[in-house]
């Protein structure tokens, strides 16, 4: 069987479970514990940085997917992080997997925390990037920031992610342009953009997460690697520090002059660090 090594070559597959068709892609060696990628607000399969996916997939099977109601997956997008976590578990189990590593970015990191609390036996290791705990500082402002930077993007003919994910320094702007160019490398079989209704459901879920009472993160016993840029506007960086402090077995990396998309800006540093963490 040919091993797919590049994300841009990974075919989009589907699996049906509970009247929902989940769209997903898979690449890398078919051995060891697979790494499930959980995506950010408004993201579909094509929003993962191919340098991060390909880098991890050089040593691990990587599976990316559209959660319920997102992109090419059917059904209605839930309005809570907890329901999204339940759907992610349903998808993982439908693939016949009993133990996985999870890389959760932003909203995906929130979903990952719930899975780790609700289904601890399912997770071996956890990578939480650009994310924060329930009730974390500033998370309830994501809706306002997203709307604001979407307007900024329209007015300046730029992708809102240039503002939301990267700093406004020379280095940050350049990193943003390079990241957005990488997202266009796949030309065949691209995913459907998220529907507005699903986007607003996700915003509602993140807003509720930001208003929740802090949960007991000490119940998450698995090793956790926490990463972020030092200037995250979407999920303020102090949330990453807070996560690392409250998780019993964690390590923290903060990238200088990095924004919300720090792991994409610093993919050359992040990928080896993630691989070392997963390989221990």
UniProtKB/TrEMBL annotation:
Alphabetized, the UniProt keywords read:
Hydrolase
Protein species of origin: Amycolatopsis camponoti
Domain AB hydrolase-1 positions: 34-264
Q: Which GO terms describe its molecular function?
A: hydrolase activity
Mind telling me which InterPro entries this protein's record contains?
AB_hydrolase, AB_hydrolase_1, AB_hydrolase_fold
Provide the taxonomic classification.
Bacteria, Bacillati, Actinomycetota, Actinomycetes, Pseudonocardiales
Q: Which domain of life is it from?
A: Bacteria
Q: What protein name applies here?
A: Hydrolase
Q: Which Pfam families match?
A: Abhydrolase_1
